[in-house]
Amino acid sequence: MSNKNFGFGTQIRKSPYFDATVRWGATGFSVYNHMYIPRDFGDPEQNFWNLIETAILCDVAVERQVEITGPDAFKFIQLLTPRDLSKLSVGQCKYVLITNAEGGVLNDPVLLRLGENHFWLSLGDSDILLWAQGVAINSGLDVKITEPDVSPLQLQGPKSAEIMIKLFGKGIKDLKYYWFRELDLDGIPLIVSRTGWSSEFGYELFLRDGSKGNELYEKIMLAGKEFGLKPGHTSSIRRIEGGMLSYHADADINTNPFELGLDRLINLDGDINFIGKDALKTIKAEGVKRLQVGLEIKCEKLSGPNTTFWPLIVDNNTIGKITSAVYSPRLKKNIALAMVDIEYSKIGLEIEVSIQEKNFKCEVIEKPFFDPKKKITSKSLK
Predict the structure, then answer these.
(1) CA gap 287, 290 in Å, rounded
(2) Alpha-carbon torsion, ordered 250, 253, 254, 259, to 10 deg
(3) Is residue 79's pLDDT more than 50?
(4) Which of 84, 101, 262, 370 is deepest in the core (most CB within 10 A)?
(5) Rounded alpha-carbon distances, angstroms, from residue 56 to 9, 41, 139, 167, 269
């Protein structure tokens, strides 16, 4: 949606980088976590090539943080997630799920441990601040739950390491995948992590003073100029290639972790207590009735990502839906994430998809569609 017909208002927040992104060419926005996010810097395929060949800088301030502090903060954070956090070190991040009493997925944030009893949940699009505050009221635990003045930027792509070295010096090369450190860039307070929602090598810079958003954005763009850095937006093409979930599309409150193949994030055997444990035990014992799969859609090049759920059909019966679909210019095919009845989840199976009342053949294929071992994101720097 372009600026001229996008209804900006005070009830939806602007990020600290909003003016900078407009200055650098953002022409379209959407709303995520009650905040505007740039979604258009021109051709999305060019944005994809910029990401995988050089680097892009993305305003992801919409990844709001829920800050949990207090004497019982660790106990409380473990109550929210089925993932065992007993080995989570200060300075480390973990990808976690937040589940409700029925085992439904409420969010799939990245968790950062800033101190013994100091945590951030870096959120997908849902109101976990309210959920956490509600859980806290009746938990009997001594915690404080707030939304801090923190706004992330993502610097992603193969040249991001060289840009970060120019900004912070060679010491940044020691930062390992899914770890972070506190840094200061010319008086701008930051947390810098080796994470990102792109399936490419990259960093997230969590600004801890919203008044310095414009200054930070411009500093990074200036440092990246010689390396071909471009302003950009999170790439639907690359994240679908990488099989990364988009909350509300590929998962929601009615989706459980086992349907998503995320069993590794669930610890049912230990003595940790978390919301949804009994429900998830029952779901595991009974087995799931549907499963997320990868699909190749055998039709002409899709003009862009799907904006509705496309029904999947076998013998005139709906057996599931495509949740995220896009054309990959690198793989030269249409790829999709879908939720299907479990009997239709076998690799190689052919089903049909209905797109604008036309049916096309699909084939169930392996996901992620590219770099399944995550060699790109997790590589260590020499």
Answers:
(1) 9
(2) 50
(3) yes
(4) 262
(5) 28, 11, 42, 15, 42
Torsions phi, psi for 375 (to 5 deg): -70, -30
End-to-end alpha carbon distance in the chain: 42
How far apart are alpha carbons 92 and 106 in whole angstroms?
22
Helix (H, G, I), strand (E, B) or coil at 197: coil
The 3-state DSSP composition of the chain as helix, strand, coil percent (nearest 5) reads: 25, 30, 45
Here the tokens at position 367 are 């996901």
Domain with CATH 3.30.1360.120 in the chain: 3-61+149-240
- H helices of 225-333, in order, are 236-241, 277-286
Contact 126, 249 (CB under 8 A): no
- pLDDT at position 1, please? 43
Residue 237 has, within 13 A of its CA and on its CB side, a CA count of: 23
CB-CB contact of 246 with 292 (8 Å): no
pLDDT score at 270: 86
As assigned by CATH, the class of the 289-382 domain is mainly beta
280: helix, strand or coil: helix
Please compute, for residue 181, the number of CA atoms within 13 A of its CA located in the half-sphere on the CB side. Answer: 11
Give Dmax (Cα) for the chain: 63
Q: Any idea which architecture 65-146 has in CATH?
A: 2-Layer Sandwich (3.30)
- In angstroms, the CA 20 to CA 24 distance is 6
Cα–Cα distance for residue pair 337/248, rounded to 1 Å: 13
Is it the case that residue 4 has pLDDT exceeding 80?
no
CATH 2.40.30.110 location in the chain? 289-382
Report whether CATH 3.30.1360.120 matches the domain 3-61+149-240. Answer: yes
